[in-house]
Amino acid sequence: MQSAIHFPVFEPAGGAAAIASELAAGAVAADEGGAKTITLMDHWFQMEMAGRSEDPMLEGYTGLGFLAGLTKRAQLGLLVT
After folding, report:
1. pLDDT, tens digit, for every residue of 57-80?
2. How far is Cα 31 from Cα 35, in angstroms, rounded to an integer?
3. Is the pLDDT reported for residue 51 higher than 80?
4. How far from 35 is each of 46, 49, 51, 53, 56, CA to CA, in Å?
5. Nearest in space to 63 (alpha carbons), one of 36, 44, 35
6. 3-state SS string over the chain?
7. Residue 75 CA: distances (Å) to CA of 26, 44, 71, 81
8. pLDDT tops 90 at residue 18
9. Cβ atoms within 10 A of the Cβ of 51, count?
């Protein structure tokens, strides 16, 4: 079985300053755990079904570049584009 991990929300307990470390920890754990794919959101604002439009949101391609420096096996992409 192949698994994929999607990171849709960027509100860690430590606030905005903790987004990078929390995302890094999750992506590395997914990669080392054998996830085939890791995806991020591909829009500028949070979707209402996942949170509020003013909630923190990463720019997708920049986020993928960050994850590329941390992961070894998983394919990286944006969920839609």
Report:
1. 899 999 999 999 999 999 999 998
2. 5
3. no
4. 24, 25, 25, 29, 25
5. 44
6. CCCEEEECCCCCCCCHHHHHHHHHHHHHHHHHCCCCEEEECCCCCCCCCCCCCCCCCCCHHHHHHHHHCCCCCCEEEECCC
7. 15, 22, 9, 14
8. yes
9. 16
Token pair of 21 as six digits: 């470390």
Question: And the tokens for 9?
Answer: 């929300």
Q: Which two tokens stand for residue 26?
A: 């999750």
Amino acid at 4: A
Assigned token pair, 44:
């500028």
